Hints:
Elements: H1 6-24, H2 28-44, H3 56-66, E1 70-73, H4 78-87, E2 95-98, H5 103-112, E3 121-124, E4 127-130, H6 134-140
Parallel strand pairs: 1-2
Antiparallel strand pairs: 1-3, 3-4
Helix pairs in contact: 1-2, 4-6
Protein name: Glutaredoxin domain-containing protein
Organism: Streptomyces albireticuli
GO molecular function: electron transfer activity
Amino acid sequence: xxxxxxxxxxxxxxxxxxxxVLIFEGNPGAAAALLxxxxxxxxxxxxxxxxxxxxxREAQRRSAxxxxxxxxxxxxxxxxxxxxxxxxxxxxxLHWVDIWRDPAGVAAVRAANDGNETVPTVxxxxxxxxxxxxxxxxxxxxxxx
Length: 145
């Protein structure tokens, strides 16, 4: 879990340090603006923008019941962020699995990608799709979900 927060914490620390230097140089406006940029970058690179993750086994069980896709992702992955942002509110209808928190999730992703931890990997009806187009993923969400 801690690994997911390294980049966001580093961004907050660096932004704070740069802002402190700018404040001591007498430029509080620039310090505030730069700190805000660093905080936004930290937020985007954190697990906070993703729906709550569940375990791979639970996600697969739920998917078998409701037919909704399972998304395997990891914090800091720009392709995962792209998928999440482009899905918008419909992202909540998917089952999200953070592979850095779930060993079964890592195993499922490796099995689908020739031993590689390539994410996002979206499993629809038992078939894995690596880094699919967000529009296609949106189409896979059943209207009844």
